[in-house]
Amino acid sequence: MSHEKKDTIAVLDFGGQYAHLIANRIRRLGVYSEIVDSDIKAYELSRFKGIIFSGSPFSVHQEGSPRFDRAILDLKKPILGLCYGHQLISLELGGNIVRGTVKEYGKAVMTIKKTNPILKGLSDNEQVWMSHGDTVDTLPDGFEVFGSTDDCRCTAVGNVERQIYGLQFHPEVTDTPSGNIMLSN
């Protein structure tokens, strides 16, 4: 079966099971997705409709942890970073990532501070699934916080003008009940 890449979402794989879960969830929403290596060059992604950066078992501070071609952020395509992907985008754009005061693993409640395209159609408080030790401490210029949990201020962030968003949690798992809505958005 052949799919036009213009109707396809690219999922950058930073390791672990996350990329496969994301691709599966996107496909269940009726959109074709293709898993690609994280070291893919930006020009190879130019024909995709959007790009999702997966989570990873690595820390962004770990030597040898997966990185990406910085030019991807200049493609003028919608980009969504999830967990590690969110942290890595923030780091590349000048944000600061720190070890969290607590490691979050499990269900948390995100309070939506400001509406935006990714969180459109959600209630003020949403259950989300967290699995991280690092956290975004300082956002890159032009980014703002859209949602927070008690332990993570930068749970949902983005730059609407650039169409670059980050979620510290995992919308691809069933423990984030509104994950399908976020991925559809």
How would you portray this structure in words?
This protein is an alpha/beta fold. The protein has a single domain (5-184), classed as Class I glutamine amidotransferase (GATase) domain (Rossmann fold, 3-Layer(aba) Sandwich). 14% of the residues lie in helices and 35% in strands. The chain has three helices and nine strands. The protein has helices spanning 18-28, 84-92, 179-184, and strands spanning 8-13, 32-37, 50-53, 79-82, 96-112, 125-138, 144-148, 156-159, 164-167. A nine-stranded mixed β-sheet has the order 2-1-3-4-9-8-7-5-6, sandwiched between helices. A hairpin with a 4-residue loop joins strand 8 (156-159) and strand 9. The chain is globular, with a radius of gyration of 15 Å. The two termini are 26 Å apart. The mean pLDDT is 92.
Lay out the secondary structure.
Elements: E1 8-13, H1 18-28, E2 32-37, E3 50-53, E4 79-82, H2 84-92, E5 96-112, E6 125-138, E7 144-148, E8 156-159, E9 164-167, H3 179-184
Parallel strand pairs: 1-2, 1-3, 3-4, 4-9
Antiparallel strand pairs: 5-6, 5-7, 7-8, 8-9
